[in-house]
Amino acid sequence: MELFKNHQKRRRERLQRLYERYKRIHEQLREHGGDILNSENFRKTRGHIQHGTMTVHNHCMDVARYSLLLNKKLRIGCNKHDLIRGALLHDYFLYDWHDKAYLSQRKRLHGFHHPMTALQNAEKEYDLSDIQREIIKKHMWPLSVVPPTCREAWVVTAADKYCSLLETVGVHRGHGAKAS
Fold first, then answer.
1. For 176, left (φ over 0), alpha (ψ -120 to 50), or beta?
2. Is the N or C terminus of the chain more exposed, i.e. has fewer CB atoms within 10 Å?
3. How far apart are CA 21 and CA 106, in angstroms?
4. Could you tell me if residue 180 is inside a domain?
5. In this predicted structure, what is the pLDDT of residue 167?
6. Is residue 177 part of a domain?
7. Does 176 fall in a domain?
């Protein structure tokens, strides 16, 4: 019985630590990206599917979270403000790339074109730093051909690939797009 109680206690402590970490991450997201999170256009990304059943909104949130975790775990030393804002805006293309009309118009080259579209959209609404521009523009490397040149862009690129893989194979499941 004592063994069971110890196991339960360790499990509660572990869950408490996970909750505290999750809470700290969300505080950082709100601190550095609150204006983005509250914007009407960012909320509209809940209406578009990214990979599998994951929405663009949830994908960008996951990429921002994993970017922060990767930066901390590997002690990379990224600028958190730029890292978070770049991660939230990296897929700010604001259209449904699964739509048949879009597919016929762009000949299914979304992967090559969307970083520049996301950058143009983000520049219309936000005052971006050079690092944030770099993150948005080069997160699709190696499709973007020119590799990232700053550590923040490398971290977001890695987090994006990781999240995309989990979403595509169905490990991370979204709840589908919601009407905006």
1. left
2. N
3. 41
4. no
5. 82
6. no
7. no
Nearest to 116 by CA among 150, 88, 81, 140: 140
> How many domains does the structure of the chain reveal?
1
pLDDT by residue for the chain (180 residues), tens only, comes to 777 778 788 888 888 988 898 899 999 999 999 999 999 999 998 877 777 677 889 999 999 999 999 999 999 999 999 999 999 999 887 666 556 665 556 555 665 578 888 899 899 999 999 999 999 999 888 877 788 999 999 999 999 999 988 888 876 555 554 544
Please state, in angstroms and rounded to a whole number, the distance separating the CA atoms of residues 43 and 20: 26
Residue 155 lies in a domain: yes
The residue range of the domain holding 7 is: 2-169
Task: Name the token pair of 49.
Answer: 């599917």
List, as one string, the DSSP characters of 85-131.
HHHHHTT---S-TT-HHHHHHHTT-HHHHHHHHHHHHHHHHS---HH
Three-state DSSP string of 66-91: HHHHHHHHCCCCCCHHHHHHHHHHCC
- Please report, as a single letter, which amino acid is at residue 99: D
pTM of the model: 0.81
- CATH number, domain containing residue 127: 1.10.3210
Mean pLDDT taken over the chain: 85
Report the alpha-carbon distance of residue 29 to residue 84 in Å, rounded: 7
